[in-house]
Amino acid sequence: MKKIFIITFLCMLTSLLVNAQNKTTKSKNKRLKVGLVLGGGGAKGAAEVGVLKYIEKSGIPIDYIAGTSIGSIVGALYSVGYRADELDSMFHSQEWLSLLSDRDPSLRGQVLTTRDSVTYLFGFPVKRPKSKSPNHTRTIGLSRGDKLVSLFDNMLNLPDSINFDKLPIPFRCVAVDIRSFQEIILSSGNLPKAMRASMAIPGVFKPVESDNMLLVDGGLLNNLPVDVVRAMGADVVIAIDLTQNKHEDKKVMKTAEDLADDKGLMKVLGWLVGRPDLNKYQNNNTNVDVYINPDLKGFGAADFKANKINKMIEQGEKAGKDSYKQLRNLKKKIYK
User: How far apart are CA 220 and CA 256, in angstroms?
Assistant: First the structure.
């Protein structure tokens, strides 16, 4: 009888433990999925690093990331495992003028020189050999961004083509096909190339050619891609918005479809006047659970100098600290 009792008791105990474990597993599986949105803004992206420090401190898990322009750079690096302190070091350690302009620092003291068929003026490439490809499209832009792509390639160390859902944190970035003036959501392919396309400011960087498209900065149509991360499956969203002048009173004069038939620089000029991105931006702006907008007044998209970067990271930290209570409350919400 003793043996029967012990066996029965052990069976009941095992059953209780298994049920408790199943409930815990189900609870974990049922938690709300969190999306992180990183907006565009050039050098002001340094502030996103400061905010990320407090998101990490809050302990909120990130399940999906979507970014535009500089947000695509910060987001892609974060999605593969780089964390805020490492991104802080990256922003401080890079010689941004050389990176953004493809400048060769070894030639900075030489007025005019030619190397590998490229002509340099004080180290800046001013003339390159013409492409022999019959499919090559002549485009406008001061920089090809080769050094940026090389940097991203070294930092990411990924195969040439991947599914961005297979990254440690699934990732999307936004670009615009300047030919059709349509928003393009990049979800697979060469990740460094996608990052470069998402930040290709018209006139500053040459567009990225891909699948019969000419891709430029996604901020032209979707600078805060909350809708993108929602479509990925996010139940709740944390958005870091670098925009300072929100144009809340500006009327949208043109749609993307209106600009599709314009040619060359007329598209960009039409965008400046018509601002077809504002309706989506304003809708996305309100469709978030924790909205963080660091105070970056006085800073510009081209402020890549070390002292400016340091101050913008500090402003991001301040915004993160101010939002910390909201972040902690969100953490409680996602585990209910």
Answer: 9
Q: Is the dihedral of CA 295, 92, 239, 285 positive or negative?
A: positive
The neighbour count for residue 154, using CB atoms within 10 Å, is 9
Rounded distance between C-alpha atoms, residue 275 and residue 291, angstroms? 22
Paired sense of beta strands 162-163 and 34-38, if any: unpaired
Cβ-contact 95, 123 below 8 angstroms: no
Closest CA to 261 of 150, 202, 180: 180
Residue 296 CA to residue 175 CA, distance in Å, equals 24
pLDDT higher than 70, residue 95:
yes
The 10s digit of each residue's pLDDT in 128-160 is: 566 555 554 555 445 777 888 888 888 898 999
Report the distance separating Cα 250 and Cα 274, nearest Å: 10
Amino acid type, 82? Y
Which residues neighbour 109 within 8 Å (Cβ) at sequence distance 6 or greater?
122
Q: Which residues contact 132 (CB under 8 A, 6 or more apart)?
A: none
Indicate the pairing of strand 236-240 with strand 290-292.
Answer: parallel
pLDDT at position 25? 45
User: Which region, left, alpha or beta, applies to residue 54 given φ > 0 means left and ψ of -120 to 50 means alpha?
Assistant: alpha
